Amino acid sequence: MSPDDFRQPLAHAAAHASEWLESLPDRPIGPRESIGDLERAFSGELPEHPCDPTDVVDELSALAQPGLMAIGSGRFFGWVMGGTLPAALASDWLVSAWDQNAGLRYATPAAAAIEEQAGRWIVDLLGLPAESAVGFTTGGTMANFVGLAAGRGAALEAAGWNVNRDGLTGAPRITVLAGAEVHSSVELALRYLGLGAPTVVAADDQGRIVPQALAAALAAATGPIIVALQAGNLHSGAFDPVGECIRIAHERGAWVHVDGAFGLWAAASPRWQTELEGLELADSWATDAHKTLNVPYDCGVAIVARAGAAHSAFSVHTSYLIRDDAGAADPLDTVPELSRRARGIPVWAALRSLGVRGTVSMVEGLAHSARALAAGLAELPGVEILNDVVFTQISVSFGSDERTRLITQAVIEGGAVWMSGSSWAGRDVLRISVSNWTTDATEVAASVEAVARAIAQVGPPR
Question: What CATH homologous superfamily does 356-458 map to?
């Protein structure tokens, strides 16, 4: 191998990446070709002989471009997907070049030290316990998995059962309580953990769990209990009354996990201090850095207040995994993976580039753009904003479900913006998630105009 082997492929990759990024302000948001088109483009037998790496990079870019979604655009509002900050993107390229397996402090000390510092910055920014264990997962589902796995072990240990030694067969049944609008990623993590579906607790019209209903459910439950709360409802952005609910749950001895895939970052700003009062009293939290913090996919963040509970769930000891002399926990002790890329390094770079004030400004800016977008849409004929816009989510109706679906489709087909369809509170909605750091007043105005064109295209209600 020679350094020259990499020079041309990397140079071409950088050029294609720059071309892509430069196209985002003006390009249509949706893919120009379908999955069928892309499958045909990438079909064919594996070549018999090697190909020049630079040619492979050029071919990949040319074939893939028509099938790419402009997720990094400030006019992309689908599925709570953020963009990528410059420092985070550039550092992610270094992560791939360095190719460190980030599981062990002894083997890859730079990756471990950087991720440990990123974790300290996160808990400090969010006002969470300084001694918490922080792990970097693939995304919110696995971050929820980590917190709930730690909770499963701790809850069963308190009931006199060692789940690591004895498994779940014959174990006391854990009751998991969650609001009626619990996110599917929590339900999926519970399935992975063998805990089954949660017991549903009533929620209000914004999707917030009702404390009195939670108290009643806790009183009716027997045995070990886990309570799953949320910071940021998928459709309304609303926060469960976490402080009150955590106090109620802890009085019953329950483990409390908070799913804050995008909304946990609101804790960085004093603006949401009232809504998130008592958040730090929970036992575990989950969020995504590839949402609100705007780092590249994939990067979830799992935080567990009692580090020992996380380490008990995930730590592994074998002769070939060499621990450092300090005896500190390794990164692999806090996440489900033994082998993984150093996905926490772009988090460090994002936070280092923003600082405290920049991070708070970005979080508040996303919420400001959401309010501006909701206000602009509300002035259009036949538009109803269904939620209180308290953070970054907007749910819109255009009257009947059929009309809402037609306008949603017209918005997507128009190409200027991407807003995904959904259903909430028994109604079809156009769901908008403001998650990209580049969304500004210009992007908001262009997005309102795009929806206005879709309304005009569909015509007045019949």
Answer: Aspartate Aminotransferase, domain 1 (3.90.1150.10)
**Strand 300-304 with 284-288, pairing:** antiparallel
Kindly report whether the peptide bond that precedes residue 298 is cis, defined as omega within 30 degrees of 0.
yes
Q: How far apart are CA 229 and CA 208, in angstroms?
A: 9
Q: What are phi and psi of 30, to 5 degrees?
A: -75, 160
Question: Which value, in Å, is the radius of gyration of the alpha carbons in the chain?
Answer: 23
Strands, E, within 328-448: which ranges? 384-385, 393-397, 420-424, 427-433
Tokens of 364: 């508040």
Element (H, E) at 199: strand 199-201
Write out the E strands in 289-345.
Answer: 300-304
Domain extents in the chain: 4-65, 91-350, 356-458
pTM over 0.85: yes
Q: Render pLDDT for 40-63 as a digit per residue (tens, 0 to 9).
A: 999 989 999 999 999 999 999 999
Token output for 210: 């009702």
CATH topology of domain 91-350: Aspartate Aminotransferase; domain 2 (3.40.640)
Q: Do 431 and 424 meet the contact criterion of CB atoms below 8 Å apart?
A: yes
Residues sharing a CB contact under 8 Å with residue 329, sequence separation 6 or more, in sequence order? 133, 307, 311, 315
User: How many alpha carbons fall within 13 Å on the CB side of residue 126?
Assistant: 34
- Greatest extent of the chain over all pairs of C-alpha atoms, in Å: 74
pLDDT tens string 364-400: 999 999 999 999 999 999 999 999 999 999 999 999 9
